[in-house]
Amino acid sequence: MNAPESTLMRKQHYEANKLAKRLHRLAGQAIGDYDMIRDGDKVMVCLSGGKDSYALLDILMNLKARAPIAFEIVAVNLDQKHPGFPAHVLPDYLTRLGVPFQIAAQDTYSVVKRVIPEGKTMCSLCSRLRRGVLYRVAGELGATKIALGHHRDDILETFLLNLFYGGTLKTMPPKLVSDDGRHVVIRPLAYCEEKDLAAYAEVKQFPIIPCNLCGSQANLKRMEVKALLREWERRHPGRVETMLTSLQNARPSHLLDRNLFNFSAVAATGVASADGDKTIDSIEFCCE
Ligand code: SF4
Questions:
Q1: pLDDT of 190 strictly over 90
Q2: Could you list the residue range(s) of the whole structural domain that residue 131 is in?
Q3: Which residue of 15, 75, 234, 256 sits 20 to 30 Å from the alpha carbon of 109, by its own alpha carbon?
């Protein structure tokens, strides 16, 4: 190896190390901030074969090895019988890793194809069926937490989709009770950027399984919002991170939801308050 090559390799190694440290720090921080994992938990990590869930499993295993608490990890993949699904990839990888795992095979693909007319979007029924299977498996395994690989950008895109199209101010929270009320779902990658996870997947050479095997169209609205965030970040670096901070800093008194804040009770107190209305004279809100 010549000198420029070895310098390049050292630099790549340094960058990969920095990336891994950042992702582990952010995941650890999110887990702590939202009290996601406690001593004695059994965490079922849902693996799709995509970059995010591989990274989630990898990071959780590393954090487990050095955590001051004891918790278990079990990886679960649902083989939905999509045409061309390489069924050996995940079992081979997980066996090499030495992590307990279960592959739940259920042909949700045929059900979706039978029920949904050609050309209509299949995702809603598909994900409902997938959820049902994963909840059942979590119950059978005695899992106390279900970990999903959604990251910061998923959270922000979902927030904007709900804002623009859903008429509601909500997103994927870092921790929530499942819709059947029986499980706690956690998102340890809530603070991690998608581009970091993509770079990590390359560094770690995860055996990615393509995500278009079901033949469903890409979600165009989500793609649009993703592009919008990317463009915004390009023009105003750091603003996307601020969006996440904003979601952690909601002020019901400064929104319009009458169920979250009792506007009838608003009355002058005669006491100055930093939370009082100042937007009248704020330069940012000036019409010029
Ligand atoms: S993209 Fe395919 S696998 Fe994913 S939810 Fe939609 S139909 Fe199901």
A1: yes
A2: 7-247
A3: 75
- Tell me, using a 6 A CB cutoff, whether residue 126 lines ligand 1: yes
Q: What is the DSSP string of 164-205?
A: IIISS-----SEEE-TTSS-EEE-TTTT--HHHHHHHHHHHT
For the segment 212-238, what is each residue's pLDDT rounded down to a tens digit? 888 877 788 999 999 999 999 999 999
Q: How far is CA 246 from the centre of its chain?
A: 17
In the reported structure, the alpha carbon of residue 130 is separated from the centroid of ligand 1 by a whole-number distance in angstroms of 9
Residue nearest to atom 2 of ligand 1 (CA): 214
How far, in Å, is the centroid of ligand 1 from the Cα of 241? 28
17 domain residue, yes or no: yes
141: in domain: yes
Relative to the CA of 122, which ligand 1 atom is closest? 7
Number of domains in the chain: 1
Give yes or no for residue 280 having a pLDDT over 90. no
The encoded tokens of residue 260 equal: 């979250």
pLDDT at position 1 = 67
Cβ(122) – ligand 1 distance below 6 Å:
yes
Q: What is the pLDDT of residues 98-108, one digit of tens each?
A: 999 999 999 99
Q: Let me know: does 24 contact 187? Beta carbons within 8 Å.
A: no
Looking up residue 47, the CATH number of its domain turns out to be 3.40.50.620
Mean pLDDT of 124-145: 95
Does 77 fall in a domain?
A: yes
Strands, E assignment, the chain: 42-47, 72-79, 101-105, 145-147, 175-177, 184-186
What's residue 283's pLDDT? Answer: 53
Span from the CA of 223 to the centroid of ligand 1 (angstroms): 15
Residues 6+ apart with CB under 8 A from 241: none
